[in-house]
Amino acid sequence: MEHRTYYALYCAVIVSLGGFVFGFDAAVISGVVGAVTAEFDLTPIQSGFVVAAPTLSGVFGTMVIGPLSDALGRKKVLILIAFLYLLSAVASAFATSYMMLVVARAIGGLAFTSLMIAPMYIAEIAPAKLRGKLVSINQLNIVIGLSAAYFANYFIINASTSGAEWVAAWGVDANTWRWMLGVEIIPATIFFLGLFMIPDSPRWLTNNGREQEARVVLAKLMPSDQVDSEIEVIKNSYDSENGALWMRIKSVLGPKMRLALIVGIIVGVVQQITGINAIFFYAPTIFEQSGIGTDAAFAQAVLVGLVNVLFTLVAIALIDRWGRRPLLLVGLSGIAISMALCTYGFSQATYELNAEGIVQIEQVEGIQQTVDTSALNSMVGTVYQSDVEFKAALAETIGADAARDYESEFIKTATNINAMLILVGILGFVASFAMSLGPVMWALFAEIFPNQLRGVAISCVGMINSMVSFCVQLFFPWELSTFGAALTFFSYGVFAVIGLVLVAWLLPETKGKSLEEIELLFSKKTA
């Protein structure tokens, strides 16, 4: 690997540390939501809002982050994003109320816009033949961050009950969920400091009248005899459309951009509406629904993280070899099949309390002081055909609050389900997503829009992606309690099939082409 390629890799790795922080922030809440719900006495919608608040604020962030990066440069905006991650981590760990926690997480949501700016930056410095791989490093760091959060949660929750002296001395046992959120301070600080050691994008520098600085950066990225021609290519692609913000927005909605915008919206919607953030943000909750208990649920969440990392590496190996389109088609097919497995597994489950199960429940710490367990005898012998029916009977028998606080124990005791089938379905879904929609979406966003409109266009499709993500996260607890797990996963599978058909119909291949060649490809298809 040449020195210049190493320099592009160096810049990509530093910028993609934001992906690690995002992944950590996204997944760490999965271990926190249950404890926060109990501590602040939250409703299902309020619990969902704790999870979804960052995505909602991220929607507003995506409206301005693209134009802001066009005005200030990718590097300055990334530094601002890193600072917001750090501020959010500190405020979340020390939150003293539901509202303070929501606000702290919403601040972090503004930093979720790193998902847009990092691929944009990497695509603008990467050689065409390596662009897919280098942009995918951001996605790899996202899934490593997700895995790190699952590992951290699993370690902290086990440490909190270990009885070790340091656990009590540091308050890990009394402030378990605060420690889970506070660990994010470490990677956020590293990301913030690392950004001061990279240059700005040479394309942005050229397009903003700083050609000499752009030449210095390009000389580190390609042979010196190619710098002049690269500068000319950048200038030629930066045409009269790059005027005022309103003119760029009109250009994004124009006929030359129609196919790129349609493809961007379809892929952005499908990436989220198939339920990936329901899996990542609520992994322990989902596994608890299969009756394995809290500790095992956290352990299986760690397995989700490992599978995610493994198949993201598969995507990085294949994205510039197979191309973007084949990976999306294979991945969406896998998602549909995996959701079908989950739907079948949950639809076949039954729920029944027996005398032995009630004895086990009575041994749960604290339950005797808050729940009249003798009332549970009225449910003995009744077989409930769905999780919704069983939870409703529990709430009527012992009260909604008690049924919610000890839901995991009741599900574990009463469920008759093929838990292995559910695990295979969830892991199959994660594997299929990790090798397709995860890395490919951001690679496409970074390359299908023209240089002069990239910031505005990615803001548009990124906002739609974030809005769909927010809705999935917000309503997932409500869907589970209202419709049940089977119907919820069935809906995700249906959306995967719809996405598969649309991608097969509309998406052209972009591998191996320069950004300027891709611009010409998409504009010709709409001429």
Concise structural overview:
With 527 residues, this protein is mainly alpha-helical. The protein contains 30 helices and 2 strands.
The shape, in one word, is: globular
Label the CATH architecture of the domain at 3-198 and 239-248 and 259-283 and 444-481 and 509-525. Answer: Up-down Bundle
Radius of gyration: 24 Å
Helix tally? Answer: 30
Strand segment tally: 2
Q: How much strand content do the residues show?
A: under 5%
Derived from helix and strand composition plus strand pairing, the structural class reads mainly alpha
Stretches where pLDDT is under 50 for at least 5 consecutive residues are none
Helix content: over 70%
CATH-assigned fold name of the domain at 3-198 and 239-248 and 259-283 and 444-481 and 509-525 = Growth Hormone, Chain: A
- Span of the ends, CA to CA: 40 Å
Description:
α2 (17-28) packs parallel to α5 (74-93) and α5 (74-93) runs antiparallel to α6. This protein is an all-alpha fold. The relative contact order is 0.15. Among the domains are: 3-198 and 239-248 and 259-283 and 444-481 and 509-525, Growth Hormone, Chain: A (Up-down Bundle); 350-416, no CATH class. The two termini are 40 Å apart. It has 30 helices and two strands. The protein has helices at 3-15, 17-28, 33-40, 44-72, 74-93, 98-111, 114-125, 131-159, 165-169, 176-182, 185-194, 202-207, 211-221, 227-237, 245-252, 258-273, 276-281, 283-288, 294-318, 324-347, 355-362, 367-370, 387-398, 400-405, 407-414, 419-434, 437-448, 454-482, 485-506, 515-525; strands at 350-351, 415-416.
